[in-house]
Write a structure and sequence with these properties.
Blueprint: H1 3-13, E1 25-29, E2 32-35, E3 40-43, H2 46-49, H3 58-70, H4 81-94, E4 98-102, H5 105-123, E5 129-133, H6 142-147, H7 151-154, E6 164-167, H8 172-178, E7 183-188, E8 191-192, E9 198-199, H9 202-215, E10 218-222, E11 246-249, E12 260-264, H10 266-269, H11 285-300, H12 303-325, E13 328-334, E14 337-342, H13 347-356, E15 359-360, E16 362-364, E17 368-371, H14 379-395
Parallel strand pairs: 3-15, 5-6, 5-7, 7-10, 10-11
Antiparallel strand pairs: 1-2, 2-3, 4-12, 8-9, 11-12, 13-14, 14-17, 16-17
Bound molecules: pyridoxal-5'-phosphate (PLP).
Length: 398
Amino acid sequence: MTTDELIAKAEQFNMKTYNRFPIVFAKSSGTKLWDVDGKEYTDFLSGIGVLNLGHSPTKVINAFCAQVRQLGHISNLFYSEPQIELAAKLSSIAGGGRCFFANSGAEANEGALKLARRWGKNISPEKTEVVTALKSFHGRTLATLAATGQPEKNELFAPLPPGFKHVTFNSIAEISKAIDEKTCAVMLEVVQGESGVWPATPEYLLEVRRLCDKHGTLLIFDEVQTGIGRTGKLLALEHFGVKPDIITLAKGLASGFPIGAIVATDNVAAIFKPGEHGSTFGGGPAVCAAALATLDTIEKEGLCEQAAEIGQFFISQLKALGDATNMIEDVRGIGLMIGITLSQPIARPVVEDMLNKGFIIINVGDKYLRFLPPLIITKTEIDDLVAALKNTLEANRG
Ligand SMILES: Cc1ncc(COP(=O)(O)O)c(C=O)c1O
């Protein structure tokens, strides 16, 4: 079938929940993808921050295939070695604690919110409130939408589960007023991703930790997007020296195989009793084998260090592009999680133009661009992207 025929069929049978670009991909490898017509693209999005090792990483695919042939699915009524090893590995990465496995970021957050509510109610029936940040993104289930501080995404689905308060991100004054004895948890991204890449300040996270300790409130870091090397550290919290009570992970953890994970300190994890939370597919042997191979590859190939170094290079090239064109107001990010603010509202046409030139990037609204390339992206590929972006910005200058 041609691209047009495939898209016409998609329009007939898929729900229209996405404003998709008119490209049908057929294959991928490393940092490259090819559409059904054979056109090549360099990936600066990684399936939205998922393919940290690039497309089809051999060790991960081999580990997944070997495991699925040997023992693919068993349910969580039994044990399997890959899940046991992955829980031990994530516990050691997090500096202790226990894991629960789900299938996505939203599910990991949903489980973390249930755990926090259950923990709070154990202290007092009133201790059920959750504080999250405006412009946050925590998922599309009803509770994670209630947690998400973006009215335009969640208002349509009211009534949402109650008990969520939203505060301005990085405002110590606001969060100091919002947390009290009724707050069971604060949930934050350490770098807000979906709203345009906004890092927390270290002072903010330190103060939030102090306030949580003062009020007996759990601190949850949603590292669904920031985790697993994306920011140049295995966990982004390592940049800040603040330890939360619960960490959630998903996107990069199994290199594209669906997984979500909650890692909670022993004390907090102990609140869940058998039957209080569960998942049919979560933590299956094959996806856990893929996650173990992902973590092993990141460690053995030094990809965190590489992401940190390449990320700095990328940021400096984008700043230089801003100086040369006068069309970039701000460049920010950590490691290979980078956002820019354009000085004109042309983000969507810029993304479309870049796709025509063979580069996959993404916009947030009409002023922000986001870059989430695989951690194996090269300086040459960055130079090529920056040259194409210069050309595109100039062509779209208003
Ligand atoms: C910080 C954060 N949390 C949660 C989610 C939801 O993850 P998922 O789409 O896997 O449910 C996302 C997705 O973009 C995210 O960026």
